[in-house]
Records
---
Amino acid sequence: MSLIPASGFQSVQYRLIELCATDMVNLVDQEVRPAFKATAKSEEEMYQHIYWKKGATIAETGAKTLTLKQFELKYSEKIIRHAKNFSDKNIWQLYLKLSPEEQANQELKDQLRLLDLNVNVFWPLQHYKTSVVYLARRPMDVRATGGTNWQKYLPPRFQKRIFYPALWSDLEKEEWGKSWVNQVLAEVKNSTT
């Protein structure tokens, strides 16, 4: 029971790895991401809208969970400093510094796409699947992580967090995670009936 307030909330190390993988704007909540991409925003501004904060809010009120408040108090400065440090040397920026011939290397593009899928589709989807199975055992819908909106936070198709959007077609981005979520929901339904 002592772990319930932190259930599903990744470590600061996980957050730092994300910032090493992609531009910070790709980690901003998808509702404000287009505006942030249109005009340059500071790391401090982007941090206020980083996607994972939305998953650590109370569904009914939008208030921050105790876990999020404590996390921000302890790590916000470190995360912002790290984001600034990696703004020009994250994996995507290093890719962009390659020659056109090197950027055209299909094996490299495939590996970046696989990283994108593993981190932004398969991992959240596995977490979602585990949550659904656990919560489906309860007689009523049990709120995870102190009442957070996990149903809207975990499925990749809702967040559409993509590290390397330039490597995906418009259709792939539009359908991001959708087929995988549908497959997992069918598996979960079959396992609980």
---
Amino acid sequence: MTARQSLSTVGLLGGGVIGAGWAARFLLNGINVRIYDVDPQAERKVGEVLALARRAYAKMLLAPLPAAGTLTFVDSPEAAVAGVDFVQESAPERLDLKQQLLAQASRAAAPHVVFGSSTSGLLPTQLQAHMEHPERLVVGHPFNPVYLLPLIEVCGGDRTSAATRERARAVYSAVGMRPLLLRKEIDGFVADRLMEALWREALWLVNDGVATAEEIDDAIRFGAGLRWSFMGTFLVYRIAGGEAGMRHFMAQFGPALKWPWTKLMDVPEITPDLLDRLVAQSDAQAGGKSIRQLEALRDDCLVAVMQGLRQVGFGAGETLAAYERSLFSGATPPPARIDAPIEVQRRHIPADWTDYNGHTNDSRYMQLSSEAMDEFFRSIGFNAGYLASGRSFYTVESHVRYLGESKAGDEIVVTAQVVQLGEKRVHLHSVMARPDGTPVATAEHLYLHVDTALKKSSPLGAELLQALAPIAAAHAKLPRPAGSGRYVGQSVK
């Protein structure tokens, strides 16, 4: 059983910015969520974050997501952890509050259930001090937005067991994250210590009138930040050392570390004047955009960067590609009913699918239909194991009709109908429609079954025929799909 399969329900303690992000990541991976939060606005806020996450995933992922989990709000920590498979705590950063919440919840959760804490700096040894079965707690420190950024710092305390660390690593990996397992406890862990150093320097630059908040951000986003997104710090500096590598870089620039540039050991006093300047500059930088608009912009930029990195298989793109492979390789359930065209996919049109008219580009309908038909094939058992046996389908002919228009953000439902099933070939017809059933486009594909080693056509495997034959028989009783078999230029009748 995989980690994702062992996760039916997750309990969340806290539904603020981080807790809502966790809810979105788990829900969109098909995991039920029980969430406890004292904020009377929590349900609205979590719903808005979930909408942002759905929007981002629709833009980012090629792989189909499983059916979303169910979200339940409960009125106590005990109710949040009852019967769950994993717990993630994301309460405010107060040691006494977190200790009390974890102690209370740990008395109600099953003894084997692992707890992760989202704290950004509190030590796990302190957090587990009053828990029942304290060996099952780790820090699982994520980064905002939790549903997009893959990094998760995993840190155990004095009493954390090796099995707990491994369970946490497996859970976080199963929902598309990149766990960083810390070797020892340290205040602020790794990433926050690095960010804190940059933050101190940035505050001094504003305080001393050297640069504005926007200018400092520009120095990051147009310069080093672009490199950091895929190479971090040390690999960048190794390259800067040229052919001689890191040793040459340190010999050339190491002495500069002793120069009195930094104010890392000193922090500017946050006076009313400095605070007013920071707030005014931040407001100006936002340009009147609401927090949700800024979050959507942030998500769009992160999606674009990670998709670009996916193309070269490096950095966060490598993690995204691995996550998509896990989604593609997941078992797709067989059709629930076969007496009508089978719904195989629902997805929203990504922004980068549109053309100069703002409408979905012609080629994307072929892509949409092709990926949906792949999903249909997976539902009848055409999986990684079948491919590994040296058998596959090759597309030998396709045809698309354009019936309407769609634009970025529109939801499209794709159905599949078997037009003809032969010993060595399958003819499928798909309709791409709005949720109300209005067709936007249709496509049909002729697939030839092949022996990939011999590069020759071959009969379908018995296991696929067993699944396909009843579908083909049922669909043979349906009216032939409108437009099926038409050629380009044929008059519409």
